[in-house]
Amino acid sequence: MNCLIVDDELLAQEILEGYIEKTPGLRLVGKCSNALEAFSALHSGNIDLMFLDIKMPEITGADLLKLLKNPPAIIMTTAFSEYALDGYEWNVLDYLLKPISYERFLKVIQKVPARFQEKETLSKETNIFVKSDGHLIQVNPAELVYIEGLKNYLLLHTCAQKIIVHSTFLKMEEALRPFSCFIRIHKSYLVNKDFISHISGNLLSMSTGQQLPVGAAYRQELMQSLRIIG
Fold first, then answer.
1. Mean pLDDT to the nearest integer, 132-141
2. For the domain bounded by 2-122, which CATH number is listed?
3. What is the pLDDT of residues 68-86, one digit of tens each?
4. Given a cut of 70, is residue 30 above it in pLDDT?
5. Neighbours of 87 (CB within 10 A)
6. CATH superfamily assigned to domain 127-225
7. Distance (Å, whole) CA 25 – CA 97
C-alpha cells in the first residue's frame, strides 16, 4: 500500500517513516509538512493510506478531510487524546496517539488490508470496458467524473483522461446502473455525485473544476438524490 505522511513535526515524520519501512506491505511515497502539500500530493499520486496529523498550523487535518471528495484510508495521528473521539465522526480508519509505539502502529495497520482489499476486489469486478478508436479501454467508474454528450458520441471525463466513445446515453446509463453515484443532470450530462462540489441555482460545480448546467427536467430528481441537511 502506498502511504503518505502528513505531519508538521519532523520527529513524528521520522518515527512513522521508520515504522512504514519495516512493515511488509507498506511503501512510503511521500511526506508533507502541511495540508496544502498533502492536497497536492493526493491529486498527483496514487495514495492508499494517509497518516494525518490533526493539529497543524493554518489548515488543520480536520479541515483537509472536509476538502477531500475521495480520500484514501485515513489514520489520524495526534498528541491530544480529545481528538480521538472526533476521529470516528470524521469517518477515519483509526487514530494513533503520540508518542506512537510500533505495537500500536501494527494493531491499527491490521485493520487496513481488509478495507483496501475489499476496495480493490470491488474495483476489479465492477470496472467497465468502452470502445474508443478501435481499442477496448478499461474504466474504473469510481474515477469517472462525468460524461458529456456530443451528437453521436460520448466524451468520458475521468480523473486522468478524456475518452471519446461512439455510444448513447441510454447504453451508458444501463452499464452504470449498478452504481448509485451516477445521475443525469442535463440532456447532455451524466455526472458522478461523488465529484459534486456545490450547486448554485442551475449551475453545478465539480470538485475537478468544471461547471455544468442543470436542466429543468432533471433538477428535481437530482435534488431528491442528494443528502441535504439544513
1. 90
2. 3.40.50.2300
3. 777 788 898 988 765 544 4
4. yes
5. 22
6. LytTr DNA-binding domain (2.40.50.1020)
7. 22
10 Å Cβ neighbour count for 214? 19
Nine cell digits for residue 37 = 502539500
Q: Please, what's the b/e burial string for 93-116 (b: 16 or more CB within 10 A of its CB; e: otherwise)?
A: bbbbebebeeeebeebbeebeeeb
Residue 115 pLDDT level (bands cut at 50, 70, 90): low
* Spatial contact of 224 and 203, defined as CB atoms under 8 Å apart: no
Domain extent listing, the chain: 2-122, 127-225
For residues 27-34, average pLDDT: 92
